[in-house]
Amino acid sequence: MRISPDQMIFWEYGSINLNLTIVTTWVLMILLAMGARLITRNLKSEIKSTRWQNVLEMLVIMIRDQIKEVGLNKPEKYMAFIGTLFLFIAVSNLLMIVPWYEPPTASLSTTVALAICVFIAVPVFGIAEGGIKGYLRSYLQPNFIMLPFNIISELSRTLALAIRLFGNIMSGGLIASVLLSIAPFLFPIIMSALGMLTGMIQAYIFAILATVYIAAATKDVKVKNDKNLKIVQHG
């Protein structure tokens, strides 16, 4: 029994190999890009629009509202990154209903790569909001003694982000395989439904946590800059 799609290797040369995770990741990216192109090529501003445009508009509004509810007042700045994370993980997990498909999110390599994207995006958005000095000062809050703890917090939450998604998807796949081997005619529909539900929940949690981390970084910088501005004005 395979634990990860990384173990299915199609081609190998030295330390370089082409495994199932890489293949399914690229197929998903191509499908998402083609789907986005097909849906958005004939967008209409009239009330009567296509069914796919309605679905797309609902999805965009839902993502924008969720980002705003977390605390980011200008959600349009973050929609491309957070929306892409959510859609990739959600589609990757929803396709578990397809026979013999193994989601790339069941690979620790994929989840670590997604978590690293969040790890890089947090300081990028933080620096864009308040400059590099303002962002670096947030690591010294409430005082300089907290510097190592703030750094450890950044690293540990990135690791937790990767492990949480990998653990849930991988364990769900293993349980489904065991149950299907015991009763192949009873469990397929139930396990497929549970797998889709779990996959959507995990995609939502990952996107929301990424939004929370970005909101915390931009808020800390903004609060610090506002305090400095008040000190200058009253000084």
From TrEMBL:
Major location category of this protein: membrane
SUPFAM superfamilies, sorted: F1F0 ATP synthase subunit A (SSF81336)
Signal peptide (residue range): none
Keywords: ATP synthesis, Cell membrane, CF(0), Hydrogen ion transport, Ion transport, Membrane, Transmembrane, Transmembrane helix, Transport
Annotated compartments: Cell membrane; Membrane
Function: Key component of the proton channel; it plays a direct role in the translocation of protons across the membrane.
NCBIfam families xrefs: altF1_A, ATP_synt_6_or_A, PRK05815.2-3
Designated name of the protein: ATP synthase subunit a
Lineage: Bacteria, Pseudomonadati, Bacteroidota, Flavobacteriia, Flavobacteriales
